[in-house]
């Protein structure tokens, strides 16, 4: 929530509208300034176009687009409200796909979520980014290749390529998490004392949030697979299966990390108990040996006038013998109890 | 339970019956005094009307309404008994929807539940509130707009709008919970000592009760989506999907808070163990160093007549050396064990 | 198990066979002595009858009934064996429903389970009680009402009314449990020392047993709803939905209590740890302050002939200053560690 | 695994082949020596036969049988390999059912598992036992009864009777477990110190293994119920439902025991914590009272030449007053903290 | 990940391409050097062939094969990327099966995962190994047998045999895990102090990873069973059921080990608590007895000039009586509290 508002506070750049018009023999790139420019592309049924909008701040623009393509008002709401769950929604002449992108520069604590909305019809693909990101750069390159499948296969394949690019980013996130867990694993296994429990707690929270962002992808893809919408072609199903497998793989990986973290927390508690046991044993051994001895020494420090032992010549050496015998007996007792 | 009875004790106001008669070109508001006034509206098939009843105390009134609209006796029972689970029930010429509203002024501990029953037929929508609440104010405004969809689309859409208004309230509750959890999170992470465990326990109970109130919404909406009742139009399905997504989002959010609370409780226990370990180490270090020294001092406090060391000139300084050596040895031992 | 045998040991009263013959215009009550009296009722297709058998001890009687109505031997076994799970079983011309009644006089520990078997055909309803109980009293009254639905609707509706009466009893049990949990909740939250853990453990066991008795009701009702048996009428489905909702409500309530008990047990453990921490801190603070002081006092209690400090005039007051300084330093140290 | 090999080491008795040939009017018993004797029975379509083979050691014999009845090689493998999961497999003219028998002489730790394979066709039932057991004795008696259903109903009913006999044994096992859990329950509730945790751990393992042996029965019976194989008659479905109910009942019973054991383990841990708290309090109270007193006594045991208090006449009684005051203050402090 | 790269670093051997051409009356073995040699085999529809490729390093080779057999690019990706989940994918004229092989020389910590990809069409089976392994040796032998089913049944049966060989390896792994868990079980039950918690933690992680590799096999086989692809013959379904049972058996075994490990960890914690309790009791008993005695001795070590007891003749023996009485009283107190 705070993230979103923060973004809103930042400089509200005019969104960039990149349009790529393409066919099997055709490829063109335009920077759209006015939405009127879009109309001729919409009417040309022999070519497809991809329009990438780099920001969702300009509600006016989005409303205009929605009128042009007769987009459902709830879809507009979904596009502009960045707290949506990933989902797929079918309409008569287009399909709406909403997914979450995850990215991070360096560490687990800086993981950012960004909502990507994709809308595809017979001859167009629209993608809305929350902020201008370079995630689709690679796709632009592939599109320029006249022999590439993106030029030939339908707009559902094009959408698959976009979603696949987003899912590929998840693997980086997963590796980041995996490395972090591995680090704590090492620290705890080596019984290091500088383990920061708070950070672990924080990372577990992050893990849960990431899972919540990826989990609905399963249902999304599942619906996609079962869809009988004319825009979704049977022959492209293999590609959808592919991103399904990737999503499951990532979720299983996250689950594995989660279980490892739980298991680490448990191990840490056990280590604490073992350490405490050791501390207690030390205290008990020392106390149990010396407290009785001190008592005996205390007895002969009393100032009674009549204390026969005090006068006996061998009292002192005999007492030392008693001290040593008691100590030896105690040590043997503790040894048998395996407290050493 | 106690809540309900409490309400019953309170002043039993005469329920307010607001009737809104509307069509694409028509909008009228009435305050119904006598149910006889309702009949003409029931017979006009070209107009729809919405009747909002602000209280369910007046059983007589509800019985009369049920006769007018031939409502099933079990539905009457559901409307008047406020401990029902959310549900949808289909009848020949109307559909009954029962949902739970949650609202709170300030804090998690003041969250109130209120049951809202909605009954819609071809040309009417009836809504029953437990107590007069202003939750539908915004809807009244939207209804006055002659171009609004509420005037055009069917009574199932109208019901969607009512349910949507109720679900929107859940988000406020969720934010309240989220803030509270965040507060405890901070307190525990900063190792503050004033964490009130009892309040946390109480909040976990509240969380479970809220979840129990929202959870059945999933099944309700799922049945709605699959319904083949003529009153439920295919084309309005997108709206139902929308509240389904919202419900899932809220349930996932609650689950996240629940997990965070569990994880916090675990962290708190671990912190307690760490603190206890530290306390124990302090005790052990001090005891282990000074108990043997005290014993030695005790020996030379004994009053035996024959104790050669007592007479030796350098006994006292030598003993100090021994004291210091023992202490240094102990400190080194503890340092190696990382007890410092 | 032991319960059953206990009952068998008790006085084996002759079972009471109450027969209620009824039609829309007809109501008669008989006490059947000889099963031969039953035959005319069986043959009258224009009237229905309800036969309530108040005991299942008389196997002879049950065998005779089973012959009269050609009941499956496994059903006879189910009726007489009181350790069955709730279930519904369909046969060609009758349906067998087995449910569990729960009742308790005062406390959770006295909850009793009783098996109620119901068998209904086109024009008869048979109910078998384990012991004579007054649970169906209210139904007898309703049956006498000539306008009541029980006289008009089919034998499946009659069975619904019987099952509904049994399920209504569950709510009482649930309230009993809820009160008990509330009591422990208060005791533990107020940190009272007289919390009886054994009773809590015992109640958790009871809760599990109750849940096991109610849980199969879900499947039973689910089968009932999906049944296409001619004896089960579509139009009575609303009533079945009603008891389904009640069952789910009770199961959710039990689950809530179970979770609260778990959460209480956890809270109790945490409270124990907090208390132990406090005890440990007290011990450590006192020991850590006085053990070193005692050592110093011990030193100057030694009897060496050469100890310069002993002769120095200001030794004693200086030592007091040292004592006080050490104590102040320790207190400051513990204060910084927040052990006070 | 080790169990199996152990058996193999033991004396490999020649398997006993009991053949019971029966029809509605016919009953004969043979001890088969040579498999050739089996052929005439196979050909007589008016009679059925049950062949019980008391051992699976003689692979030669089993291969010959499999040839005679054209059994699938994988079935032969299943029969001879005793680590299979319970299952049902349908073939063109016979059905293969594999179940696990559990039996124990006295205690939970001696529970034995034995695999029973049953193969039934139109006019034959084959049963393979791992070792000669008397589990089917009762069935032999029922078979001799010319009016019994086993003589009339099909081979699927016969198989039901065999499986039912095996499941009935489970109830004995369950009672054994229930008694054992009850014993530990008593021991722990009464806070006895001789609770053997290792045995409890061992029993939990046994419980898990038993559950794993019974759990697949659910799927087996579920497949049986849904089967459309001509050998499985609709009218015998009631019997299958019966063993399904029994299996579920046993699994629920095991689950209850498992939960009780978990809850007991938790209770035991809490009791340990309570005891430790009590021990700690005793230590702390004694130490906190006497350590400061000992320090004061130590002070006046010092041998400084200038210690004014030593010469004062009332020092000693005043000190006693101080001792008593400190003790009273401490006791009051601990009382207020509820450490007594 | 690291594992894969490690392998890549190692010597990149030229992959071995073993081709086995076979029919009911025919068997030939070739070592393919050039893929051109493959073409005649592809065209002979009366014979089948199995091509085993011992390495996936040579991407060039795999691309050529894919062209020859028109394999989908995503399949090529799956074959060469060794971090895939087990899966089955159907294409028009071939089916792709990807499974994970697990093997280990000696210990749980050396368990290796290897990806095996199998592609089968009407008359060919292709298998890709990550590294040259001898896992299929036994299959080569069976293939030489002219009466073997592998020569007669379809390529789906051949694939079953390959997958079965891989699953058989799982049993070895499972036994390895079972032995390891058994070892820890013994160590902990015998309360040995050298239990290595870190290794247990590590093994739990390994267990989870193994489970993740085997778990998707269930879905794979489930899809295989439900498949209606012409290459998959109904009559071979029994074999698929067989590997399904094996997979479930292994997963249940792993789950059992996992539960045992959890239970062991819990037992270990309880043992630690018991030990700590014992240590605490020892300390408390010794301290509680001797601290008050030492205090008394300290009193009579004070040097007050006026202490009447000091001069009394019987003070010393009387004090000894007091010492003994206090000790006896304490011992009795502790005995009653069962601290001995």
Describe the structure.
Chains A, B, C, D, E: This is Magnesium transport protein CorA. Chains A, B, C, D, E: Mediates influx of magnesium ions. Alternates between open and closed states. Activated by low cytoplasmic Mg(2+) levels. Inactive when cytoplasmic Mg(2+) levels are high. Chains A, B, C, D, E: It is found in: Cell membrane; Membrane. Chains A, B, C, D, E: Keywords: Cell membrane, Ion transport, Magnesium, Membrane, Transmembrane, Transmembrane helix, Transport. Chains A, B, C, D, E: Its main location: membrane. Chain A is rod-shaped. The first copy, chain A, has 2 domains: 268 residues, Beta Polymerase, domain 2; 62 residues, Magnesium transport protein CorA, transmembrane region (Methane Monooxygenase Hydroxylase, Chain G, domain 1), CATH 1.20.58.340. Chain A has 340 residues and is α+β, with helices and mostly antiparallel strands. In chain A, helix 7 runs parallel beside helix 10, helix 9 packs antiparallel against helix 10 and helix 10 packs antiparallel against helix 12. Chain A has a 7-stranded mixed sheet, sandwiched between helices. Chain A contains 12 helices and 7 strands. Helices cover 58% and strands 14% of the residues of chain A. Chains in contact: A-B, A-E, B-C, C-D, D-E. Chains A and B meet through helix 8, helix 10, helix 11 and helix 12 of A and helix 10 of B.
Q: What oligomeric arrangement do these chains adopt?
A: homopentamer
Helix percent band of chain A: 55-70%
CATH topology of the largest domain in chain A: Beta Polymerase, domain 2
> By helix and strand content of chain A, what is the structural category?
alpha+beta
Number of strands of chain A: 7
CATH superfamily of the largest domain in chain A: CorA soluble domain-like
For the record, the count of structural domains of chain A works out to 2
Work out the radius of gyration of chain A.
Answer: 35 Å
SSE string of chain A = HEEHEHHEEEEHHHHHHHH
CATH class of the largest domain in chain A: Alpha Beta
Task: Report the uncertain regions of chain A.
Answer: 1-11
Query: What can be said about the biggest beta sheet of chain A?
Result: 7 strands, mixed
Task: Tell me which protein chains meet in the greatest interface and how many residues each side has.
Answer: A-B, 53 and 46 residues
The total of helices of chain A stands at 12
CATH architecture grouping of the largest domain in chain A: 2-Layer Sandwich
Classify the beta-strand content of chain A into a percent band.
5-15%
Shape of chain A: rod-shaped
Mean pLDDT of chain A: 88
Give the terminus-to-terminus CA distance of chain A.
Answer: 56 Å
GO molecular function, one term (chains A, B, C, D, E): magnesium ion transmembrane transporter activity
Main location (chains A, B, C, D, E): membrane
GO cellular component, one term (chains A, B, C, D, E): plasma membrane
Pfam families (chains A, B, C, D, E): CorA
